[in-house]
Structure formats: C-alpha cells, structure tokens
TrEMBL record, chain A:
<feature type="region of interest" description="Disordered">
    <location>
        <begin position="217"/>
        <end position="242"/>
    </location>
</feature>
<protein>
    <recommendedName>
        <fullName>ABC transporter</fullName>
    </recommendedName>
</protein>
<feature type="transmembrane region" description="Helical">
    <location>
        <begin position="158"/>
        <end position="179"/>
    </location>
</feature>
<feature type="transmembrane region" description="Helical">
    <location>
        <begin position="191"/>
        <end position="213"/>
    </location>
</feature>
<feature type="transmembrane region" description="Helical">
    <location>
        <begin position="90"/>
        <end position="112"/>
    </location>
</feature>
<feature type="transmembrane region" description="Helical">
    <location>
        <begin position="20"/>
        <end position="39"/>
    </location>
</feature>
<keyword id="KW-0812">Transmembrane</keyword>
<feature type="transmembrane region" description="Helical">
    <location>
        <begin position="51"/>
        <end position="69"/>
    </location>
</feature>
<feature type="compositionally biased region" description="Basic and acidic residues">
    <location>
        <begin position="231"/>
        <end position="242"/>
    </location>
</feature>
Automatic annotation (TrEMBL), chain B:
<protein>
    <submittedName>
        <fullName>Uncharacterized protein</fullName>
    </submittedName>
</protein>
<keyword id="KW-1133">Transmembrane helix</keyword>
<feature type="transmembrane region" description="Helical">
    <location>
        <begin position="180"/>
        <end position="207"/>
    </location>
</feature>
<feature type="transmembrane region" description="Helical">
    <location>
        <begin position="119"/>
        <end position="140"/>
    </location>
</feature>
<feature type="transmembrane region" description="Helical">
    <location>
        <begin position="152"/>
        <end position="173"/>
    </location>
</feature>
<feature type="transmembrane region" description="Helical">
    <location>
        <begin position="73"/>
        <end position="92"/>
    </location>
</feature>
<keyword id="KW-0812">Transmembrane</keyword>
<feature type="transmembrane region" description="Helical">
    <location>
        <begin position="227"/>
        <end position="247"/>
    </location>
</feature>
<feature type="transmembrane region" description="Helical">
    <location>
        <begin position="35"/>
        <end position="53"/>
    </location>
</feature>
Length: 242, 523
C-alpha cells in the first residue's frame, strides 16, 4: 500500500488543484493586495502604518489558508489509498508557490510605496517570519478542525485564527509579540515567531498523521463527513503510523 | 439568504398571522441563548473581562476621572462585537451550510421573519455588555476619589457597538453564505479602524468608537459628540437591520418606514458628530490653559494655597500630603514660606497631534520669577508617577524660586541634585528606578512636572552626573543626609554651586564628569 502512495499522490495532483477553494483564495488575495495598495495610492502612510498594513495583509492571507483544507468532495477522496497527511500536504504544496508570489507582490507594493527615504524602516525579513507563522498557524488550526469535519474546516478554523492572533496585538509590554520596527526586543520576538511557525508546521504534520481514533472517547461521535474518514484511518495498518 | 424560494416570497407578502410573532420570539430566544453560549462569543467576553480586570488596568485606578473612564470599555467591547459579528453570521448561515433551508421554508416562519429573529437574538448580548459596563463604571464611580462626571451616551456606546457589529453579521449572512466573508469583513474593519482612521479626523467618528481622545481634560471642556454618535450608531443598527430584513424578502410598509427613519438618524448623527471639535469651547479651553486663575477656586491648607478646577476638590488632601513631605525636609523658614499649587491642563489642543503641548508654567499674571510663581499639578493623579512629579515641582519651586523655562531646562548644578533628592526622598525611593526607565539615550533623565501621562506638558532634565550624586545620597543613612541638607541649605541653593561641591557638602563622593555629561547645554 505504501509503495503506491507516490503514484496515487501524483494522480491526485490535478483533481486536488481543481478542488482547491479558489473563490475564497482569490477573494482573500484581492483584499490583501487592496489593503496594502490602496493606502499607498490614496494616502502616504507612515512607516509604522505601512508595517501594520503588511501585518494585516499577512493575517488576511492566513485567513484564506484556513480554508485550504475545505473539501466538499471529501466523501470521495477519503476512500483513496493515501494517508490524510499526503492529501493535506498536496493542498498546501500546491498553494505554497502562489502564496509566496502573493506575499512577494505585497512586499513589493510596500517597498515601492515606501520610497527611498522609508525603506530602511521596512523590516521585510521580520514581517515575513510573522506572516509565515500565522499562515502555519492557519494550517494547523484547519488540520485540527478537519479531524472532526473534513468538508468545511475553514468555517471554524478562520474565526479561531482571528481569536488567537488578534489579541496578540494587545499583549502588554514584556509579553508583546507585535513590535514596532527597531524595538530592542525585535530579534528575540522574531526568534519566537520562527519557533511558532515551526511548532505549527510540526503540529500540522503530527495531527494529520495521528489516526482519528486516537483521541476519541465517545463511541457515538459520528458526525458529518468525519464518519467517512474513519474506516480508512482506523485500519490497523502499522505502516501508516510511522 | 440571497434568493428566497418562490414559496417563501409569497409567504413574505402575505399578511402573517399574529401567532407568528410568538414564533419569531421563540426562535429569537433559542438563537439568543445559542449565541451567548457560542465559544467565540464566550471567549471574547472572557478576554474582555480579563482585559478590564487585569492588574494595572484603568478599572483599578485609585483616582479615576469619570469623564475619561466612561469610554474606557469601548475598545474591548468593539473587539467583542467583532466576535459577535462572526458568531451571528455563522448562526444565520447555518441552515444554508447544512442544506436545511428548504426544510425551514416548509415551517411557520418565512426567511424575513427568521432574519428578524436573528436580529432580536443580539439583544441579550447588548444586555451582557451593558451589565459589564455598568459594573466597571459603577466600581469606579463609587470610589471616594472619583472626580468629574460620566456621560450616559458614552457608556451606551460600547454595548451598542456590539449590537451594530452583530447586525452587520446578519446582513452579510443574507447577502452571501460564504464563511470567509465575515472574518474578512472583521479584518477589513480592524485595518481601517486601527491603522487608517487612527487620527482624530471626521472619518474616525464613522466607526463604532473613537478610542484616541484627550485624557485629564475637565468635564466641561471635553466636548465629545457622544450623544450624536450614539444616535448615529442606533440609526445605523436599525438601518442595516431593516436592509437585512428587506434582502430576506420582508418589504412591508413598516420596514420601509423604519429604514427611512433610521436613515434620517444616521445622517443627522453623522452630520453633527463630524462638526467636532465644535469650536464653541475654544475660548473656554484657551482660558483654562493660559489663564486658569480665572476659572479656578482656591483653598488654603497651612501655608500652602491650592487652586484647582472645581471638580478636582477631593484630591487636595493627596496633593497636600506630598507638599508637606517635601517641606518637612527643608529648613524651618523655607518650610513655612507660602506657596501656591495651581492645577494646570493643556486643553487648547487636547487630542490634536503635532503640537509639543508645552504649557507656559508661569502665567502672565504671575511672571517667571518671584514668590508669586505657583507650583503646577496635573489633572491626573494616582498612577504612581504624579506624586513624584508634584514633589519635583514643589522642590524646584522651593530650591530655585523660579518657574521652569520653556525648552526643557537642564539642571547641572547643586540645585539639580537637591531638587531630585527632595522629590525622591519625599515620595518613595523606589520611584528613582521608574525615573531611570525613562532615561534619554544620551544619558539624561527627564523629570516631568505634571506626571507621566502629561509628560509633554513640561519637564526639567538632569544629567547622569547629578543622578549619580543623588543615588549616592539615597544610599547613605537618611537622618545624616537630612541634617546636612538643612544645615547647608543656603550654600546648596546658591546659583553656581557645582554638583561636585554639593556632594562634598553632603558628605558623599561624586563620580567624575563624563563626556556624555559635558555634552549637555548647561545654563
């Protein structure tokens, strides 16, 4: 069974690409681009405002990512002989290049808008680490929710993402994770952001690997599409647990 | 629901039996309870309570100015409103998501009445918000040191914002069933509210709350269009609710009438609130800033006269305690000299940005020198830095007999040492550490004369060298230093006595003057 996985995954590429939630991704990308570009065109934002706009755009992109695992056709894909991890990873890997292109475009807009004088105050690397962290967090949340309901995890994951990230901006001084450029704690906090990114990525993989039965205690918990996931994932196949 | 089915449209047009009202209320009660128990709403309310009750929150201020505290809850409640927007949107799209709207169409209520029920389900949240606001404000208002007056319109703004944002959620649910639209709207609102409309422009008042506002301005000089803003919010809530009902097929005459009335309220509210600041109070504000004596009342405690804006009367005893402590450290004749403590506020450009906000401490009637110059005290008290500021201002007055000149005077001599030592010794010595936190990068330390919150209103600066002498003095036994200060008072306060000499007179060793110290432009 394991030896067939790469071949099936290759076969899955095209249908997965077609099944991605394109309308959500397109809408979110447009809003993110507008939220950075419009202020540059209409007003001249200060370096601090520009950084905040980039952060909000990163969160907007992550909001789209939270819908990435939405799969109304999950009833059909659940029966393919590949683990959940491969199906999820396929979706993430297919969108990753587009996400990178969109984020580069956002950075480019901010870079051009900043002009010669303000470019020194635009910490592109730092804000990219933050963006990667919130995106990874979105994938992790979607993975958690997808364990219960694989058809529409984004419906729960997206609000949860906001609930987790928006209060971060209001944390008081010693715990603050959202800092102005040039803050003495910048390097320390961004190491923390990188750690959050890594932890979220690892959690996504682990959660996608663990069989659904592992943490279930109630035998009557057969809701929605998760039911269709169970026969496959509960199979006593030691190879899939590695 | 974007396109109600043909049957439900007919149902909407037909005159509904009176029993339907009970069905709407029953559905509203059910949805209201579900909304209250929604994890998103529960978490948001919990975070809001944690924010308001955290140690160091304004809720626990010992001396709350009520005219500022009445809008303290607005920002956290707007964040709760965003959670409600998403939660009610999920509730209103639930049938669509699970493909059960066809089943609901077969039941008693047509889509527009179900929409009305969702709108009504928001009212319990308004109530919860109102209870939270009442509890927080009530706690502050019953403190004996509370001053000023709260505004009922400001208090109602927070809960009404929750209502308005919830109605936006219902409207979005009627326009599209997509689950991404509500969170996306929240992010767009957050961006435009906190990033773009952060200034005090007319646009800012179109958002649920204007959180950047002057603090410490006396109640009568505040002039926020809170009433018009509340009218605007209520109108907006009703208007968007009527639109959501109309989109769902409820186009009866009463709905249209409600919408028109609500639109009138929105326009009136928006128009009048955008006229802020009205300018009507410009003369009074200028008077309070530049010639406060004309509007203040004075009372004498011992040899000190306190002149204050009438509503701050209950703070005089706290001020007097600090002034007495400073006086007690000086020789008898100085301790008995009459001084005036006058409350100062910068109300002219309250809330506007781009001004350094410095107040001329010596008012024209007083002159910059001489015994008539009064000691300034701010309009905030109790956050921990104001008593040090008042002690520093009193010490400055007793040591130099002059008003601080505009342009941040640097005190490079024995008088600087004495002023800071008196201020720190009279209050709490732990305050020296909080002073050091505000150190300039060049090494100097600013001492605000009105407290941290009104830092830009006026300060004096000490070099690191003088600070080191004061630190050395504070490390010595108290009685010994106290005695030496009284004995050497005239030498220490004479202009031209260096801080090295002061250290010698007081029996401590001063560090050498460093290059950084030499760079200060000493007068």
């Amino acid at each position: 069974m394991r030896s067939q996985t790469p071949a099936v995954a290759r076969e899955l590429c095209r249908p997965t690409w077609r099944a991605l939630p394109w309308s959500v991704l397109a809408g979110v990308g447009t809003v993110a681009l507008l939220s950075v570009a419009l202020p540059e065109l209409l007003a001249d934002p200060t370096p601090g405002v520009r950084l905040s706009l980039l952060r909000m755009a990163a969160l907007t992109c992550a909001l789209g990512i939270a819908f990435l695992l939405d799969d109304p056709g999950q009833v059909t894909t659940a029966t393919v002989p590949v683990p959940r991890l491969v199906r999820h990873a396929l979706r993430v890997l297919l969108v990753l290049p587009l996400h990178a292109v969109l984020w580069s475009a956002l950075l480019a807009v901010a870079w051009i808008g900043a002009g010669e004088s303000d470019r020194g105050q635009l910490p592109l690397g730092g804000v990219t680490v933050e963006a990667a962290a919130v995106s990874a967090l979105a994938v992790a949340l979607a993975t958690v929710v997808a364990r219960r309901d694989g058809t529409r995890p984004g419906t729960v994951a997206a609000p949860t993402l906001l609930l987790v990230t928006v209060p971060l901006a209001f944390l008081p001084a010693p715990l603050a994770l959202v800092l102005p450029e040039g803050h003495p704690d910048w390097a320390r906090v961004h190491a923390l952001w990188a750690a959050i990114c890594l932890a979220a990525a690892v959690a996504s993989v682990v959660l996608a690997l663990t069989p659904l039965g592992q943490y279930r205690h109630r035998p009557d918990n057969h809701r929605h599409a998760s039911q269709t996931d169970q026969p496959l994932d509960r199979r006593p196949d030691p190879g899939r647990l590695r | 629901m974007t396109a109600p089915s043909g049957a439900s449209k007919e149902a909407a047009r037909a005159r509904v039996p009176a029993g339907d009202r009970r069905a709407v209320l029953a559905l509203a009660r059910f949805e209201g309870l579900r909304l209250l128990r929604h994890p998103l709403v529960l978490t948001a309310f919990a975070l809001c309570v944690v924010w308001m009750a955290r140690p160091g929150a304004t809720t626990w201020r010992s001396h709350p100015p009520l005219q500022d505290m009445d809008r303290d809850h607005q920002l956290p409640l707007v964040l709760v409103g965003f959670a409600v927007l998403i939660a009610v949107n999920l509730a209103a799209t639930r049938a669509r998501r699970h493909g059960t709207d066809a089943i609901l169409d077969a039941l008693v209520l047509p889509p527009w009445q179900r929409t009305v029920a969702h709108l009504l389900s928001l009212l319990p949240l308004w109530l919860v918000g109102a209870v939270m606001v009442a509890a927080q404000f009530g706690w502050m208002a019953t403190r004996p040191e509370a001053v000023g007056r709260g505004d009922i319109a400001e208090l109602a703004t927070g809960p009404t914002s929750v209502l308005l944002l919830g109605v936006v959620g219902v409207l979005l649910a009627r326009l599209t069933a997509s689950a991404v639209v509500a969170p996306l709207t929240v992010l767009a609102l957050l961006t435009s509210m906190f990033v773009l409309a952060a200034g005090d422009s007319g646009v800012a008042w179109l958002y649920p709350t204007v959180h950047q506002s002057p603090s410490g301005v006396p109640t009568d000089l505040l002039d926020r269009p809170a009433g018009w803003h509340l009218l605007y919010l209520l109108g907006m809530t009703t208007l968007l609710g009527a639109v959501a009902t109309a989109v769902a097929g409820g186009r009866r005459r009463t709905a249209r009438g409600t919408a028109v009335a609500a639109l009138t309220c929105v326009l009136a509210g928006a128009l009048f609130q955008s006229a802020w600041p009205s300018g009507a109070l410009a003369r009074e504000r200028q008077q309070a800033t530049e010639r406060p004596a004309e509007v203040q009342r004075c009372q004498r405690l011992g040899t000190t006269e306190y002149c204050l804006f009438p509503e701050f009367g209950v703070w005089v005893d706290d001020w007097d305690r600090v002034v007495r402590e400073v006086r007690a450290l000086t020789p008898k004749d100085v301790a008995a000299s009459p001084i005036t403590v006058r409350q100062r506020v910068n109300a002219v450009d309250a809330g506007s940005t781009g001004s350094d906000g410095a107040i001329p401490f010596a008012t024209p009637s007083e002159g910059p020198t001489g015994s008539a110059w009064s000691v300034p005290v701010g309009t905030l008290w109790g956050s921990g830095t104001e008593d040090l500021a008042l002690a520093a201002a009193t010490a400055y007055r007793l040591v130099t007999g002059e008003a601080p000149q505009p342009g941040t005077p640097v005190m490079c001599d024995s008088r600087g040492v004495l002023t800071l030592w008196l201020a720190v010794r009279a209050t709490s010595e732990a305050d020296l550490n909080s002073l050091l936190d505000g150190q300039f990068s060049g090494g100097g330390v600013p001492i605000s004369l009105l407290g941290e919150a009104q830092l830009d209103a006026g300060w004096v600066v000490l070099r690191e060298h003088e600070l080191a002498v004061v630190q050395a003095l504070l490390d010595r036994p108290r009685g010994d230093v106290d005695r030496r200060v009284r004995e050497e008072w005239s030498a220490l306060t004479a202009p031209g006595t260096s801080s090295l000499r002061a250290a010698e007179l007081l029996g401590v060793t001063a560090p050498a003057v460093t290059g950084d110290d030499g760079e200060w432009n000493c007068r």
